[in-house]
Amino acid sequence: MLEIKNLVVQIEDNRILNGLDLTVGDGEVAAIMGPNGSGKSTLSYVIAGKVDYEVLEGEILLNGENILEMGPDERAAAGVFLAFQYPLEIPGVGTMTFLKACLNAQRKARGEGELSTPDFIRKVNAAAETLEINRDMLKRALNVGFSGGEKKRMEILQMALLQPQFCVLDETDSGLDIDALRIVSEGVNALRAEGRSFLVITHYQRLLNHIVPDTVHVMSQGRIVKSGGKELALELEASGYAEYRASEAA
Questions:
Q1: Where does the signal sequence lie (predicted)?
Q2: Would you identify the CATH topology of the domain 2-89+165-249?
């Protein structure tokens, strides 16, 4: 599904990723954990195509195609989705208008016809019910006045509608209470499928109790320094990141 080879990235002459290698298989849920400043969010932005970052070396292959040669919109059409740690508020843009524009833009890029308004509304209502999203939220401007949990549910709603191949969740658990964490996790788990992979970036084991990963990777100094099964997250929860911070200081 996704293969990253020797990825070297900087921003404003500050090197952040240092020869990172990572493979996420078809249908796999991979978690990335690590201390603050290790490059986890940078990795998510570079996969999605945020323009601020300069890629000095390396490749990011999605099903064998180097997406570094694509713009952010082309990556989205190819099946890449990023759920932000802090979703943006967009005053003046209705939630339903935004959702329909995104969905139809991707369908057009893939050579598919636009959804009719009734079909679109049915899709949104079905997904919103699963995520316990109040219909009144859908009538408001995108994320404006939403709580942290509501914004994260809206991100997962977008993912459910767009049906991407590769989903990056950047600290989706940030700012969520217990109930919101459960609802968001259930929405993610409902999308797990053989043809869809996930990269889950988190600091805490609590998210991985709900979204159980197949593999766990530890980042430090802009590269993957340790990989293992889901039990690795439990080890990190018990011991913390002290040994990795020590290696950074060495």
A1: none
A2: Rossmann fold (3.40.50)
